[in-house]
Write a structure and sequence with these properties.
The structure is a homodimer. By secondary structure, chain A is of the alpha/beta class. Chain A has three domains: about 10-50, 434 Repressor (Amino-terminal Domain) (Orthogonal Bundle), CATH 1.10.260.40; about 60-165 and about 300-330, 3-Layer(aba) Sandwich (Rossmann fold), CATH 3.40.50.2300; about 165-295 and about 330-340, Rossmann fold, CATH 3.40.50. The first copy, chain A, has twelve helices and twelve strands. Chain A has helices at about 10-15, 20-30, 35-45, 55-60, 75-90, 105-120, 135-145, 165-180, 195-210, 230-240, 255-265, 300-315; strands at about 65-70, 95-100, 125, 150, 160-165, 185-190, 220-225, 245-250, 275, 295, 325-330, 330-335. In chain A, strands 2-1-3-4-5-11 form a six-stranded parallel β-sheet, with helices on both faces. A four-stranded parallel β-sheet of chain A has the order 7-6-8-9, with helices on both faces. In chain A, helix 11 links the parallel strand 8 (about 245-250) and strand 9 (about 275). The relative contact order of chain A is 0.12. The model of chain A has no long low-confidence stretch (mean pLDDT about 95). The interface between A and B is large, with 57 and 57 residues. The structure holds a DNA duplex.
DNA sequence: TTGTACGCGTTATCAA
DNA sequence: TTGATAACGCGTACAA
């Protein structure tokens, strides 16, 4: 099927006996144009079903109205919700979002950023891969004067806008809640990976204990990959060693889920024998038995914030792009897995 | 910060004392060029950090290497997994994916398609909104000779490539499995919405019963929105009416989850008293207690297939675009919620 | 094998 | 307020 020839500003111009420049100005809301011509142009544009060619516009103006968005994994609730948030803001401003994923592979991350630059996106919103150690590809983005916003997984090595949640506070809330429920021997599942967010969660855990007069016990801290299997293994170790513990605060819902399984398989009751708190607010946490207390990171709002920071940077003078770090306060979602005292 | 001036083919041409056309040909692998010039061009391109300007290329060639992808909801596991699948294939072919969501609102769907066309995407991959009744916006896509691939939610009103799963077969498998486990009074949760996929699941349920000599009983069929609350309500109705039933096949995991809660709250055992099968293979189904038997739709593979159909259409002669309907065979994921007989 | 010349559709600049 | 002209960077007939 042959393309129906699209109408251009020249077609409109010809019909009205004006020039393309006039039409362009009328369509772009340029003030230096008479009301009558503007109306005529708009009318004719409608009649001819004119649709602007964004490619031509992009070539001339240097702005594509495209945002490159890079996430580790598209099909994880946390990330897809952030994409959703970004997209809501972007679309309302007539921007489109190109999504790519790194799968935590450094090369993919580099390639995606390069592809974004080739596609001439107006800027990038990204979460750094777990294994990323250097940031030259991101620096290139900044060197070109393009806005770069990092979310969740960020780095102090890049001077650019960021949005994170207060992981420390989330962990502090979670641990304090367990203490308030009467727990005193609280295990913690974390990861050996050198990512700030987990260090912060660990710090929140330790400080909450200390603030409540409980001495942190390193025998109760387990490091792994925070997947379900890790949670199972940690819980089994705890039980085998007959380590004394009455609660687990896991830095990930998945590991918490693994622990829940093992604890129940061993005939112990949740929360009576072991109270349990996770982190992420994954959708499944409300469906477990008992439902899992966890920390909500407000991913959609995080997406909104990332997009807003992006447009702030985009609209600021290039010489002095405003870089800003936004910290979102998390919320403890209290469910049955940690509720020993009836409220 | 000022944009570091990007190098263009003209810069390369100047350095080598050839013309831009020569450089263009060398870079595009055009055979009508000498080996020596080709090598020189490639070498200089590397030295100058040349990156092709896809916008200019798109304007000239009419191909943007962009795919518009429209889903009802980005942050639902099923859809984000399909996006992932599409993206994997697309990126490997140097295409990028622009994602938009309709939120099941018809206007959003129209706007998204229009935005895609304005962005001059090379084609569209979409799932139709629940409330969409007419398809003019999609017809426009086809009239322009652009590839359009529909997935999951499709319509016979559009003559274009589609990929769906065999909902009938999924339901047939699920119901037959329950029968094989000894169930004879099997309830079904479905929806009143006039979407083919649910009709097909209902048909598979009925036929499986009949094929095994069980008379379908309409008193065991419940219609709602298939959300968790609907599942709860249906299960409560079943129990209150003292309706005789020994299994539930729900057309959605969410409603199955609601039923699981109510059944357990009433002191009944799963699967001994009530066997349970859902549909979707949502991530949470492996974390429920007991884990939920369900139907896997292979969303990532569905994304791969959709992308492959897309590129088939893109590469076929415009006069005779090959339209093809691919049906993916689902898989019954058997878990404890339905396993009455130990294998 | 390479060069010439032009156009893709829009916008920016300058002049009127 | 409008017009004329050039340019964004690339690709492609056509010519040499």
């Amino acid at each position: 099927m042959e393309n129906t020839k699209k109408t251009t500003i020249h077609d409109i111009a010809a019909k009205l006996n004006v020039t393309a420049s006039t039409v362009s100005r009328a369509l772009k809301g340029n003030p230096r144009i008479s009301d009558s011509t503007r109306k005529a142009v708009l009318k004719t544009a409608r009649e001819l079903n004119y649709e602007p060619n964004q490619i031509a516009s992009a070539l001339r103006s240097g702005r594509t109205q495209l945002i490159g968005m890079l996430v580790p994994t598209i099909n994880r609730s946390f990330f897809s919700s952030i994409i959703r948030g970004v997209e809501e803001v972007a679309n309302s401003l007539d921007y489109r979002v190109i999504v790519s994923q790194s799968n935590e592979v450094f090369e993919n991350e580099e390639n995606a950023v390069r592809a974004f630059l080739n596609a001439r996106v107006d800027g990038i919103i990204a979460s750094i891969g777990k294994n990323t150690q250097h940031f030259d590809h991101y620096k290139q983005v900044l060197e070109r004067g393009l806005p770069l916003v990092l979310f969740d997984r960020t780095t102090p090595q890049l001077h650019t806008s960021q949005v994170v949640i207060d992981d420390y506070q989330g962990a502090y809330l979670a641990t304090s809640h367990l203490i308030a429920q009467g727990c005193v021997k609280i295990a913690h599942f974390t990861t050996e990976r050198k990512i700030d967010i987990y260090k912060e969660r660990y710090r929140g855990y330790v400080n909450a204990l200390e603030d409540h007069g409980i001495a942190p016990n390193e025998a109760l801290v387990f490091s792994g990959s925070l997947q379900l299997e890790d949670g199972r293994a940690h819980a089994e170790t705890l039980l085998q060693k007959k380590e004394n513990f009455d609660a687990i605060f896991s830095a990930s819902d998945y590991a918490a889920m693994g622990a829940m399984q093992v604890v129940r398989e061993n005939g112990l009751k949740i929360p009576e024998d072991v109270a349990l708190v996770g982190f992420l607010n994954e959708p499944f946490t409300s469906f477990t038995d008992p439902p899992l207390t966890t920390v909500n990171q407000f991913p959609i709002e995080m997406g909104h914030t990332a997009a807003n920071l992006f447009f702030n940077a985009l609209n600021s003078e290039k010489e002095k792009i405003v870089t800003k770090k936004t910290v979102i306060q998390p919320e403890l979602v209290i469910r049955a897995s940690s509720l020993k005292k009836k409220p």
